[in-house]
Amino acid sequence: MFPPEDHPVTPVLRRIGDRWSMVVVCLLHQRPHRYNELRREITGISQRMLTYTVRGLEDEGYVERTVFPTVPPGVEYALTERGRDLVSSMLPLLRWANNAP
Questions:
Q1: pLDDT at residue 2, rounded to an integer
Q2: Residue 44: left if φ>0, alpha if ψ -120 to 50, beta else—which one?
Q3: Which of 8-17, 18-27, 46-55 is the least confident region?
Q4: Contact, 70 vs 52, CB < 8 A?
Q5: Domains in the chain, start-ordered, CATH in brackets?
C-alpha cells in the first residue's frame, strides 16, 4: 500500500523513485559535476530528461546549482545538506541492491 497523498514521504518517493534521480544523486555524492559530465556518465539519458531531473532535484532542495562567471558561463551541480542526508539514508538500500541476486 502506497502512503496517502498527504503523507510526508510521498513527495520524497515521487522525486527519488523516478528512473534518473538516484543516478544523479549518486554521481553527485562522489563529487560536484558539471552538466556535460553528468550527461556523459549517465548512459541513455536525454538532454531534456537530465535537465528536468536536475531541476526537480534542485527545486526539492537536494541539489544546488552554482554558476561561475566564465565565458561561456560554467555551471556545476552539487548535493546540498538535504541531498547528503538523503544519500546517507539510502546507503543501506543501495548496498542491499548491489548485493541482491
A1: 59
A2: left
A3: 8-17
A4: no
A5: 9-96 (1.10.10.10)
